Write a sequence for this structure.
């Protein structure tokens, strides 16, 4: 069952400082190559989960093992290095740098961590990616001059440039029109298919759920000071 | 964009090579710079030229630009000639107000030699005062000095000394040669002095007439009893001038008229009719047609001798 | 580091106005004190160069600064006059060569410098055209004056009356230009040089039997009607020394009593200079001898003191500017919080992210300082020439 897990979380407890919010995940397992959607109410901590998986945040208790690496045991520098080499992140607000061209945005990971080296094959790959997502003619333009759909597609190229094994997308289609929604998801699924990568997507959009192999309802993991901890046993809403 | 600005600033900082300039001319050419050998000496009259040549010999090149037939005392060089003077190593002046033109030109002060500066106390003031009135000062007169100093062999020797000193200062390594040149000239002047003294002694108190007031220094040295008129040897005197002469000889019974140059026959005859003989004592301010300063002076002495017999 | 610089560069290039303002501020606060220092230093050197080249100056006992300014820079008012006798005194001492100066009259606003031929050699002035003055009434003009009046050898200039009401009856003197000097980048470029005796004629101390000359009729004609010519009321009469009247010119009295404004004494040796200075130290000595370089240094000390206050003020402004620039940077960091977060989220290393931000500061500083350096180079290269052209002349 969990022989080759991409993500394994055990006994995780996380809260932000003094606040009410707390996250408890007794166990979570995502197999390599799975396409998982994570749904749940706003503020339930879906983004926090992605941050924990990516090593952007660290839990007060528990273990997170991603791609065979115990992320929670790494120091900050190692986590960043791990993240940039193995995980591709896509954001709801695209988060492109406005003062860079589309090409420079796509190549950004290779410029901000010494573990990645910007070499000609990487540039070539950027162009290829841009072709595949349909923004190759916009590579020279400043990012803010693209349409919403083009921006997200460019951001996806950035997420894919380092050829990560894991894609974490936080509401990637939230700001897109229906045509682009589908298109962006197509790109992500295509990549995951080609590379055998794992895709974990947080989404509000229930229309898209059918395309995913598994849906995790975050109600299970979220708790507040008022409520009590939920059990891990598959609850209504979790399907396999 | 900022790269372009940066580059522009750096390019602008590159200096343009200064435009080449043609070789500019120096001021009044560095005297004698071309010929380190000979000193270039300019003078204001012939006697100084003679002294300079006697003393300087091969070490000097003496130039006196005035035309031979003009009295240097009334000569003035044109600006181009003045420029030539400016290029001289030394400019020998007579002093005593001789070359009035010197007051009206620009000459390099450090290269001027006032040959009579050493005996200013012996200058003889001019008798006549020309009074006129002009300018803010009102009436005034020119009181000047007689300037034919070289007629007195003693003063001439002093002038020659000044020339020697100036040469020696300019070319110290040739001082000995200059001294030698000076000594032979001094000897000649002494000999001339002896001749003139003897002649003067023989003349004694006998009254003499001078056709032109240029013999003051001669008169003073040898104690001659002379009076002057204002006659030119080559111009017949006017009747007024003859009458002036007659009045003059009324109490100054001279038997000889001393001329600067050869007088015209008519004048000579008329003078002889009055019992006055004519002899020529050439001041030699400009170069003689024949001979040199010394030969002219000796001839002058001979003329005086002749007058005694 | 290369990548960090690239990203920093892109950011700065995108926000070009902000970058331009920051770079300009840095450039100015670096260049102003440095450039000012260079310029003042060069100004001082230019001013003192002429003073250094003039060993000793003798004049009447009054303000040494006035004497130096009049004699070296031909500044307007003539100082108290001394006499030509001082020239003779120095010459006869055998200690120095005297070069008289009489700087009092003007051709319009340009000084007439009465002196001797030695002046040209002393100041190492060369002739671009013509020759030095030879006879009275001839003059030599400086390069810039010749250019601005459009005159050369053969033309004439006329002296200007000393005061509006010239009751002495001395008329302006028209002088013949016989030479034009090469540019020397000194006040000599704007002066009219004549023989000292010519100035005495302008003053009325020397005169000849000349007729007052009136300018050519055509210039003075206001209107012409048949046979009647109405003259222009502004016709001014002037004196002129010509070939015909030059021989009549003469001076009265002892030349030693005639006035000059100063004389330059060029000592034959260091020791003779000291000896000469010693001769002027008596209490009842009516003249003074000064070292122009000493006088100028005193003047410059005052200027340098002022400069140091100015520099202090600039430094205070510089601190304020740097503080403002730092504030701008910190504020922009706040504005870019999201951008930085993104870089961290996708895995940018701490060092790289920091390097990008620091690089921006570094690039701005380097650009600012480089431009300041370039401007300083320009100042030192062209400053001297600019000073000579615009300030000293």
């Amino acid at each position: 069952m969990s022989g080759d897990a991409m993500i394994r979380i055990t006994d995780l407890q996380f809260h932000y400082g003094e606040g009410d919010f707390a996250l408890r995940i007794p166990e979570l397992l995502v197999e390599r190559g799975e396409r998982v959607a994570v749904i749940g109410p706003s503020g339930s901590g879906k983004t926090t989960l992605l941050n924990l998986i990516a090593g952007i945040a660290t839990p007060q208790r528990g273990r997170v093992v991603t791609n065979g690496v115990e992320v929670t045991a790494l120091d900050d520098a190692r986590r960043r290095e791990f993240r940039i080499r193995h995980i591709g992140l896509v954001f709801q607000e695209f988060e492109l740098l406005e003062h860079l061209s589309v090409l420079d945005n796509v190549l950004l990971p290779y410029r901000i961590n010494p573990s990645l080296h910007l070499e000609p094959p990487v540039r070539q790959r950027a162009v290829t990616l841009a072709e595949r997502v349909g923004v190759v003619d916009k590579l020279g333009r400043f990012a803010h001059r693209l349409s919403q759909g083009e921006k997200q597609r460019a951001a996806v190229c950035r997420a894919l440039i380092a050829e990560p094994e894991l894609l974490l997308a936080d509401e990637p289609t939230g700001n897109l029109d229906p045509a682009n929604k589908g298109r962006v998801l197509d790109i992500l699924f295509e990549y995951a298919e080609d590379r055998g990568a794992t895709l974990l997507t947080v989404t509000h959009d229930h229309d898209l759920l059918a395309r995913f192999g598994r849906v995790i309802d975050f109600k299970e993991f979220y708790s507040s000071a008022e409520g009590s901890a939920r059990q891990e046993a598959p609850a209504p809403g979790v399907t396999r | 964009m900022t790269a372009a600005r940066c580059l522009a600033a750096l390019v602008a900082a590159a200096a343009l090579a200064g435009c080449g300039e043609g070789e500019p001319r120096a001021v009044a050419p560095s005297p004698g710079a071309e010929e380190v050998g000979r000193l270039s000496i300019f003078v204001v009259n012939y006697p100084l030229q003679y002294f300079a040549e006697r003393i300087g010999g091969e070490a000097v090149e003496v130039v006196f630009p005035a035309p031979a037939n003009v009295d240097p005392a009334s000569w003035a060089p044109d600006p181009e000639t003045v420029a030539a003077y400016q290029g001289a190593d030394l400019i020998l002046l007579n002093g005593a107000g001789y070359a009035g033109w010197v007051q009206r030109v620009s000459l390099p002060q450090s290269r001027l030699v006032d040959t009579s500066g050493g005996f200013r106390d012996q200058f003889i003031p001019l008798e006549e005062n020309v009074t006129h009135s002009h300018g803010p000062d009102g009436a005034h007169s020119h009181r000047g000095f007689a300037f034919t100093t070289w007629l007195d062999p003693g003063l001439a020797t002093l002038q020659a000394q000044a020339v020697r000193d100036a040469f020696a200062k300019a070319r110290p390594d040739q001082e000995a040669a200059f001294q030698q040149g000076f000594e032979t000239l001094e000897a000649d002047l002494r000999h001339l002095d002896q001749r003139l003294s003897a002649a003067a002694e023989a003349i004694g108190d006998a009254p003499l007439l001078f056709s032109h007031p240029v013999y003051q220094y001669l008169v003073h040295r040898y104690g001659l009893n002379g009076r002057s008129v204002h006659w030119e040897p080559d111009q017949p005197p006017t009747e007024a001038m003859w009458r002036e002469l007659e009045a003059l000889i009324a109490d100054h019974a001279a038997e000889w008229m001393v001329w600067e140059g050869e007088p015209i026959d008519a004048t000579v005859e008329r003078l002889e009719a009055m019992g006055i003989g004519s002899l020529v004592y050439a001041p030699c301010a400009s170069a003689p047609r024949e001979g040199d300063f010394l030969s002219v002076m000796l001839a002058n002495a001979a003329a005086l001798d002749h007058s005694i017999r | 580091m290369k990548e960090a610089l690239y990203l920093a560069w892109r950011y700065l290039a995108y926000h070009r106005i902000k970058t331009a303002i920051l770079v300009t501020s840095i450039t100015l606060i670096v260049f102003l004190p440095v450039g000012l220092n260079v310029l003042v230093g060069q100004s001082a050197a230019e001013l003192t160069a002429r003073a250094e080249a003039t060993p000793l100056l003798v004049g009447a006992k009054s303000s040494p600064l006035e004497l130096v300014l009049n004699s070296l820079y031909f500044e307007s008012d003539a100082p108290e006059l001394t006499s030509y006798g001082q020239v003779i005194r120095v010459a006869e001492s055998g200690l120095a060569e005297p070069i008289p100066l009489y700087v009092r009259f003007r051709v319009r606003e340009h000084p007439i410098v009465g002196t001797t031929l030695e002046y040209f050699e002393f100041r190492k002035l060369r002739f671009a055209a013509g020759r030095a003055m030879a006879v009275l009434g001839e003059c030599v003009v400086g390069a810039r004056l010749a250019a601005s009046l459009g005159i050369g050898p053969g033309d004439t200039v006329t002296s200007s009356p000393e005061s509006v009401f010239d009751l002495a009856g001395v008329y302006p003197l028209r002088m013949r230009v016989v030479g034009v000097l090469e540019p020397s980048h000194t006040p000599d470029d704007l002066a009219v040089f004549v023989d000292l005796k010519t100035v005495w004629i302008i003053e009325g101390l020397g005169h000849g039997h000349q007729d007052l000359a009136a300018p050519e009729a055509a210039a003075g004609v206001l209107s012409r009607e048949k046979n009647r010519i109405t003259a222009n009321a502004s016709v001014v009469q002037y004196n002129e020394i010509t070939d015909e009247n030059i021989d009549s010119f003469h001076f009265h009295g002892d030349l030693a009593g005639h006035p000059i404004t100063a004389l330059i004494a060029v000592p034959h040796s260091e020791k003779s200079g000291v000896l000469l200075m010693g001769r002027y130290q008596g209490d009842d000595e009516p003249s003074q001898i000064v070292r122009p370089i000493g006088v100028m240094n005193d003047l410059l000390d005052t200027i340098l003191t002022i400069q140091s206050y100015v520099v202090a003020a600039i430094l205070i402004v510089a601190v304020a500017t740097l503080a403002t620039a730092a504030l701008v940077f910190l504020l922009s960091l706040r504005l870019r919080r999201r951008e930085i977060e993104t870089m961290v989220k996708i895995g940018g290393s701490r060092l790289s992210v920091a390097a990008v931000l620091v690089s921006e500061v570094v690039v701005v500083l380097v650009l600012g300082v480089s431009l300041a350096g370039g401007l300083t180079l320009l100042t030192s290269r062209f400053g001297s020439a600019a000073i000579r052209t615009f300030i000293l002349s």
